[in-house]
C-alpha cells in the first residue's frame, strides 16, 4: 500500500506519537476480536477471509455509510469485489479502533486506501 506524505505541520507537532507497544496491543486486541467473531469457524482467522455472505451479515453500515460507499463506487468505478474488500478493510479498521460498529470514519479510511490503488499510486 502506498502511503501519502506527512505534511510539515504534522511532523513538527508537539503531539506525542503512539508508541509501538500501544500499537502492538491494539493489533493484538483486534486479532482477538476477529478470532472471537469467527470462533465457530476454525478455518477463519481474519476479516479478509470472510465470504461475500459473511460480509453482508457482519459488515453492516449505516445509511450514511451506504451513501458514502455508493458515491465512491460510482466515482471510482469499483466492482462488487471491491465493495466487499472495502467493507472487510472497514471492519478491520473498526476492530483496531475498538469499535463494535463500522463508523463513517472507518469506511472513509478504507475507501481512501482503495482510491489510492485506483489512481495508480502502486505502479
Report on the structure:
The protein is mainly α. It has one domain (19-118): Helicase, Ruva Protein, domain 3. Helices cover 61% and strands 0% of the residues. α4 (63-76) runs parallel beside α6.
Radius of gyration: 16 Å
What portion of residues belong to β-strands?
Answer: under 5%
Give me the strand/helix succession: HHHHHH
Number of helices, where a helix is a run of at least 4 consecutive DSSP H or I residues = 6
| CA(first)-CA(last) distance | 11 Å
So what's the overall shape? Answer: flat
How many structural domains in the coordinates? 1
Q: Class, according to the CATH hierarchy?
A: Mainly Alpha
Major beta sheet, specifics? none
Q: Could you report the average pLDDT, rounded to the nearest whole number?
A: 86
Strand pairing plus helix content: what structural class? Answer: mainly alpha
CATH architecture: Orthogonal Bundle
Q: Estimate the helix proportion, in percent.
A: 55-70%
CATH topology: Helicase, Ruva Protein, domain 3
How many strand segments? 0
Low-confidence stretches: none
Quick description:
This protein is an all-alpha fold and 123 residues long.
From the structure above, extract its key features.
single chain; 123 residues; mainly alpha; Helicase, Ruva Protein, domain 3; flat
Write the layout of secondary structure elements.
Elements: H1 8-11, H2 20-37, H3 52-58, H4 63-76, H5 80-96, H6 104-118
Helix pairs in contact: 3-5, 4-6, 5-6
